[in-house]
Amino acid sequence: MNDMTPPTREERVEKLKGLGCSRKRVEDVRFTHGKGNYVDDIKLPGMLHGDFVRSPYAHARVKSIDASAALALKGVVAVLTAKDLEPLNLHWMPTLAGDKQMVLADGKVLFQGQEVAFVLAEDRYIAADAAELVEVEYEELPVVTDPFKALEPDAVELREDLHGQDSGVHGKRRHHNHIFLWEAGHKEATEQAISSAEVVAEEMVYYHRTHPCPLETCGSVASMDKVNGKLTVYGTFQAPHVVRTVASLLSGIEEHNIRVVSPDIGGGFGNKVGVYPGYVCSIVASIVTGRPVKWVEDRMENLMATAFARDYWMKGRISATKDGRITGLSCHVTADHGAFDACADPTKFPAGFFHIMTGSYDIPVAHVGVDGVYTNKAPGGVAYRCSFRVTEAAYFIERMIEVLAIELGMDAAELRAKNFIRKEQFPYHSALGWEYDSGDYHTAWEKALKAVDYEGLRREQAERVEAFRRGETRKLLGIGLTHFTEIVGAGPVKNCDILGMGMFDSCEIRIHPTGSAIARLGTISQGQGHATTFAQILASEIGLSADSITIEEGDTDTAPYGLGTYGSRSTPVAGAATAMAGRKIRAKAQMIAAYLLEVHDGDLEWDVDRFVVKGAPERFKTMKEIAYAAYNQAIPGVEPGLEAVSYYDPPNMTYPFGAYVCVMEIDVDTGTHEIRQFYALDDCGTRINPMIIEGQVHGGLTEALAIAMGQEIAYDEIGNVKTGTLMDFFLPTAWETPNYTTDFTETPSPHHPIGAKGVGESPNVGGVPAFSNAVHDAFRAFGLRQVHMPHDQWRIWKTAHDLGLHG
Ligand code: PCD
Ligand SMILES: [Cu+]
């Protein structure tokens, strides 16, 4: 009897494992069984291995390169230098930021670790041995690692190739080491607001240079099939289609003859957005030799030469009335871009979306100017879990708020609440030109403060300060607050592009006759779990269980064109494309169902996994039945098959937000810290998979912890990288990582088809200021205003020392 009972509506919904379900990650079976397929797992017959000779100097002329000893080593096939690439016009390559970058040293080197020669050998070890045997004669030149010194009149000219060029793609260059000045907002109005304000706080906020450091380093395997003229490139690419187009433009090989595959990727975090010399060299080497060529960098190469992030010196001024109403905000950034401007930003925005720097606050006027500067450091400027300089902006405003609170003698939580954009102001137009889609900051803030018992914490903190002053304790208590607004989902093609390619994204769906499906997207997961979550979006749209839907990404021969995964854009853009393609499937399915049920289209309504005749619930066709009919029944006026594709150009970006509180104990004598509590409330609109969101938040917070508390790419004055190994570059383990409490509110995006916003980057954007503000807050009672990150043990100790707390 029971077996005959049809499932209830709830049971049918549950079976879909659609939106809102904490579905287990389908990709993990493969990973936990050691069956992942990463670039380094790819082994092709006859494959050669490449390795770089890299510069030990930060700035030097390359007088000569002698490869004879290397070439004499058994198993060495070739040694490529800039001279070999020059006839192909590949000794330099364009960067994502409209600059150009040497592929191999052309006459000089500009940073330590720069690629000088590419050694090709029968195996990886021979290649490494041979690289040691290449004799390079260098003549050292003066080194500049400080962007302010780089702009002094007598500073050495770094980019001689640009000599005499007083403008670049982003406008005027006012000095030979200057790249651009980019501005937004109203300068005069802002100056006016600040100079006439009752209270002004001014501070230099430095967000240090760091590095995404994914577990898997960058690499590629290029294979030129000379017989049929087809080039296949496997690589750690966050944007495989863009790599295909660029490879075609640079090599002259027609695009249909290039196949780019991003296999499993062991973490991207922005590190794998850019194009690196290793990719170019492996491709050229394969074209020249006709054999597959693999290049995989090691950890030190990864830290030294690929993709730094941040390095922004942000000089800020914020003004307010005596009772704490913000009246203006100004910021001047000196941005250290290293030797080449290879920032991964949309063309129009050389400082990314830094002008989201007014944050969560209703600030009437603002102005920002960003000076890009060349120094003898590695190029990059990648997002590192933050869509295009948003983390710098969030750190800046969240520090400025704290400094203003000190200036006003006001509680920092109250100051924030007083200035939040109010719920009814959305869509909100910011002073720097953004349209925030939706938000409810006060609700999130109140929830957060209540969850941590904010007032109780402040009382405890005050008691602690007293006890410290009485000599009863050596530990201080810091309460780190942050309310951040993110901007993710680039987006609008009219505003955003990479190398001229507009930033839409795509999804193509094929429903199979038995009612299962494959969907392919222009994005590529690097650990985010797209195979799990995109199937969930579709399940809710088309009424087939997520378990019956395969998601495939990363192979340009099969996936529709897309701009890739970074800047938390997959959910806002490709996720929207997925929903829209699903709706096209449903529209056709409705016509088929109408035919099968012999009713008019309009007499049907969608119900979870079926079309039902209105008013006659016993008459329906399930999606499975419809799929079968689509292929096996002649339906007048309807083509066979059930497929759809959607290219989605988002009308706007999405603006996720969050409220974080970090409670930290600091030992004044040792400089050590202990995180007692970390509360993270995220609002990413409609939640697809709460479990994955929680994982994303944990991961992003841990990267934020790393950055705030110790991680850094540091240089000495002659340009040596001091943190080029995991001995010196802080990567937190379970030991350093605290417990996180996650929470949420849900304010859907009004323009996204399912209301979802991105979330992957939010915890980093909000996390860094929360950790840093906790350190600052612990010392507030003793007069600390601003101290630079990372807050490692030594720097915290030094802060205590400089404040006279060591007696
Ligand atoms: N509402 C919502 C949202 C979202 N989600 C989910 O979550 C994730 C994420 O998302 P998103 O936010 O959209 O993002 P995407 O695009 O996907 O991704 C990207 C990001 O992601 C993150 N995360 C991660 N994880 C992992 N594991 N790994 C990795 O690598 C990574 N990375 C990082 C980064 S850094 Mo950049 O690149 O810097 O710009 S950006 C980034 C996915 O899965 C999705 O689906 C859900 O569920 N819901
Ligand atoms: Cu960023």
UniProtKB/TrEMBL annotation:
Read off the SUPFAM superfamilies from this record: CO dehydrogenase molybdoprotein N-domain-like, Molybdenum cofactor-binding domain
**Signal peptide position in this chain?**
none
Give the function comment from the record: Catalyzes the oxidation of carbon monoxide to carbon dioxide.
Q: Give the catalysed reaction(s), semicolon-separated.
A: CO + a quinone + H2O = a quinol + CO2
Q: Which domain of life is it from?
A: Bacteria
Organism lineage reads as:
Bacteria, Pseudomonadati, Pseudomonadota, Alphaproteobacteria, Hyphomicrobiales
Q: Record's Pfam families?
A: Ald_Xan_dh_C (PF01315), MoCoBD_1 (PF02738), MoCoBD_2 (PF20256)
What does the record give under GO molecular function? anaerobic carbon-monoxide dehydrogenase activity; carbon-monoxide oxygenase activity; copper ion binding; iron ion binding; molybdenum ion binding
Q: What is the species listed in this Swiss-Prot or TrEMBL entry?
A: Lutibaculum baratangense AMV1
User: What InterPro entries does this protein map onto?
Assistant: Ald_Oxase/Xan_DH_a/b, Ald_Oxase/Xan_DH_a/b_sf, Ald_Oxase/xanthine_DH-like, AldOxase/xan_DH_MoCoBD1, AldOxase/xan_DH_MoCoBD2, AldOxase/xan_DH_Mopterin-bd_sf, CO_Mo_DH_lsu
Q: Which UniProt keywords apply?
A: Copper, Metal-binding, Molybdenum, Oxidoreductase
Required cofactor names: Mo-molybdopterin cytosine dinucleotide; Cu(+)
Q: What protein name is recorded for this chain?
A: Carbon monoxide dehydrogenase large chain
According to its UniProt record, this protein's enzyme class is oxidoreductase
Where the record annotates domain Aldehyde oxidase/xanthine dehydrogenase a/b hammerhead, the positions are 33-142
Subunit description? Dimer of heterotrimers. Each heterotrimer consists of a large, a medium and a small subunit.
Enzyme nomenclature, EC number? 1.2.5.3
